[in-house]
Amino acid sequence: MPGRYTVGEQMCPHRLVVEHVTSRWGVLVLIELLDRPYRFSELRRAIGRVSEKMLAQTLQTLERDGLIHRDAKPVIPPRVDYSLTGLGREAAEQVRALALWTERRMDEVQKAREAYDARKGAAELG
Q1: Partners of 34 in the β-ladder
Q2: Torsion sign over Cα 31, 36, 39, 44
Q3: Of 18, 33, 74, 104, which has the fewest Cβ atoms less than 10 A away?
Q4: How does pLDDT run across 31-47, given as a tens digit for each residue?
Q5: What are the residues whose beta carbons fall under 8 Å from the beta carbon of 33, sequence distance 6 or more?
Q6: DSSP per residue over 75-108, as a string?
Q7: pLDDT 10s digits, 43-71
Q8: Terminus-to-terminus CA distance in the chain, angstroms?
């Protein structure tokens, strides 16, 4: 319900979802799942450098938010596949657009960083 919470409120539900979607691992999970469903171990390898615990927590959080579908198949050994829901696909496309923008603009960001660092260094010397 728009207007019910302000963006700055600590427990604002909108803010929590933004935090989940834009978290370090949330971004990578959403972007990776845009291509296809993954099993847990496949997703962990595709993302790289994420602990099993953090990936499990991220998937559970995104599933709770309705962004990820967890499909546990009753087979032996157990098989669990993760995929995006319609809502998750929409969020993932937005996150991917931001990631692609960052990639396209990285040279400009790097130049801005260098200029900033040069100004800060000169100010500290002067």
Answers
A1: none
A2: negative
A3: 74
A4: 999 999 999 999 999 99
A5: 43, 68, 82, 83, 84, 88, 92
A6: -SS-EEEEEE-HHHHHHHHHHHHHHHHHHHHHHH
A7: 999 999 999 999 999 999 999 999 999 99
A8: 53
Look at domain 13-125 and name its CATH class: mainly alpha
Q: Whole-angstrom Cα distance, residue 68 to residue 40?
A: 13
Which residue's structure tokens are 């692609």? 100
- pTM of the shown model: 0.84
3-state secondary structure of 50: coil
Q: Torsion angle of alpha carbons 90, 62, 105, 121, nearest 10°? A: 150
State how far the Cα of 103 lies from the Cα of 97, in Å rounded to an integer. Answer: 10
Q: Is the dihedral of CA 53, 59, 64, 65 positive or negative?
A: positive
